[in-house]
Amino acid sequence: MKKFRGVFIKNDNEIGLLREANRIVAAILDVLGEHVRPGVSTMHFEELAQAECRKHGVRPAFQGYHGFPFALCCSVNEEVVHGFPSAQRILQEGDIVSFDMGVVYDGFYGDSARTYPVGAVSDEAAHLIRVTRESLFEGIAAARVGNSLYDISAAVQRHVEAAGFGVVRRFVGHGIGRSLHEKPEIPNFVPRGMPGVPLKPGMVLAIEPMVTVGTYEVEILADNWTAVTRDRKLSAHFEHSVAITPDGPIILSLSQAEAARHVG
What we know:
By secondary structure, the chain is α+β, with helices and mostly antiparallel strands. The protein is about 30% helix and about 25% strand. The strands form five sheets. A five-stranded antiparallel sheet has the order 10-9-11-16-17.
């Protein structure tokens, strides 16, 4: 693979493998979404994710990564990211739940995340989910040749903060390819005094806004993984893996079901 300023540039074959890895991730997230309802334990989604990985003949990308013990990050309400599935955590009416899922297919990684309402949720929770998803697509629209990395960041931050929500600073998006986390880091806010990386065809980026109702500051729980909002207010998370092409961004992890959900 060629590199530009430390960022791997993928060829058409490599992008094709990344497209298949992310197609499988999207299919798994579709299945998980169909099971979201009150009364279901979050461990049920881990079991589904494991079964779907076996079905598709892929390896869970997160399990064992720096010691993470599960295939699925399952984060509820104030949990921002890296939540542990649990047989004791039962989804309740009005909760929101975020799934972050990754797989390895033929040496290449897929990575995507979605947040779902559990039954009927508050207007605030529904608005948070909607704005977070919209901010992802705003960021993707800016992922074009001729723009810089921080044009993505600015598009996300502008949309989120215009709605009165907070943008998490501690966790960022990333390049993706033969490794789960490659250069560049993709913040969902514009860092001060930092030069942006020009976007080039062949870059593949995992863009993932994490948005909060209150403070953007987070804390890590005693399990050393689960990140929660410091004020314990709601957080939502959406992510897509996106290829930069001369004709514009291509979302590799967008299923038909999620595309219809976005339009809706």
